[in-house]
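Final report, Chapter 2: Outcomes

The project's central promise was a pipeline that accepts a single protein chain and returns its three-dimensional structure in a standardized token representation, suitable for archiving and comparison. That pipeline is now operational. To close this chapter, we reproduce one record exactly as it appears in the project archive, with the input sequence first and the structure output second.
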Amino acid sequence: MEQPVSQTKLIRAAFTSILVATALGITAKAGSPDSSQAVRSFVQSFYNSYTALASGIHDSSPLETILAKRRSVLSPELFRALKADDDAQRKVSDDVVGLDFDPFLNTQEQAGHYTIGTITASQGIYRVEIRERGSSDKLPDVIAEVAREGGNLVFVNFIYPGNGDLLSVLKTLAQERDKAPSANH
């Protein structure tokens, strides 16, 4: 004999359905203010922790730490390109064969404190303007491109106003390494 479904179980099922529907609705609204706020929070949190890493003395570089411990903040494509560049540089101690600047700050100097500016969204990509606090430059220091992949926010690229973007720089460096004569061949 089948047991009747209790009223409590029905209420729980209805409540769970409402929560799932609400969560899916929020995720689907890529241009909503809630999404922009989530992007702002994600990027500011990253920059707060990254600049703390960059301003301290550690056994590894801030980039190496991100690649080893926080790779989930990077899209798979960006992670692979940064990792390949970092690996190539580690093999050569007497020359620069990879990035010669901080890819997240667009600088060679020690990190300051960075703030989030304007956020724009287009076709599922958020462009987030980032400036060093106190900067009077009209252009941001860097523009982070953020997208939702697998339900999580990730960095997909970094644009350097007037100087291209990270993925293009990494591609060019990889091509130059492939063309260069090497003692490893």
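Archive annotation: The chain has one domain: 33-179.
This record, like all others produced under the grant, will remain available to the consortium after the project formally closes.
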